[in-house]
What we know:
Helix content is about 65%, strand content about 5%. The protein contains eight helices and six strands. Helix 1 (about 5-30) packs antiparallel against helix 7 (about 275-295) and helix 3 runs antiparallel to helix 5 (about 200-210). The longest helix is centred in the N-terminal third of the chain and has 55 residues, at about 45-95. It is rod-shaped, with a radius of gyration of 39 Å.
Amino acid sequence: MKISTSALFDRATQQMGNVQASLAKSQAQLASSKQIVTPSDAPNQAASIQRLQSLMSRQDSYAETLTAVQTRLQGEETALQSVSNLLLRVKDISVQAASDTLGATDRHALAIEMGGLRDQMVSLANTQDSMGNYLFAGSRVSQPAFAPDATGALTYQGDQTRMRVSVGDQRSVQINRSGSDAFVRVVREDAKGEKTGIGFFQALDQLTAAVQNSDRVNMQRGIGEMDALQNGVTLALAQIGTDMNVVDAQTAVLDETRLSLKTTLSSIKDLDYAEAITQMNKQLLALEAAQSSFGKITKLSLFNYIN
């Protein structure tokens, strides 16, 4: 078989080109710290990386939602815990006011304090989050949960809608609470046995009026109703605690999922420096050998042989 000088040159040039291309790819990998510099390097791996990154992005979105839900629940918990403490103080005052040792002037002073405590509870019932949304207004987050009606009585203005958000591929949590669930109504029965619901703040106002007017009958009734109001707030706090436990558990699940995805993505995407440097050194030696061989080949020709 005859081998021309041109064929020798072409073959040597092609060999050096292949080695240089491999070396350039290794250098690009080291510079970017990635196994795949362009999708064409490994289409299957590139597709896997894209899919894993999409999953990571979704998990990160769930984590942000959980953080927002946690903040909202903490706001609800703080507000209702303060309301609970204020109710205890109202009951203590009303029990004190019912004592026979107090006169009308003393009860009037206690009624003033009860009115101040009631105003604090109204403010807490209309607590807003960092976005200006009212926590206890149901889905009507743009308006106060409790506001005066046409008669001037403070009533619940929200609704009973309970909204949920996704915090996982198969998991959602509740993000709001209606004011009527926490600030419950009390049920009264008249002489005819008919039952009537009285709003949370109406019951407080009537108890305050009874203390101010030294109305013993209504004071005793109001003191008994304080337990019902307190129970409603306590149950709401218990529900918030349950929701926070769910958020904590889901956060732990998300953290494990994100760690697993990061590990898998790193194994496909990130470069093994030790292996890459070793490979590049081999390619450098191969290139030097090819260049040396090419230098010798260029000196070979038919005329040199004749000479």
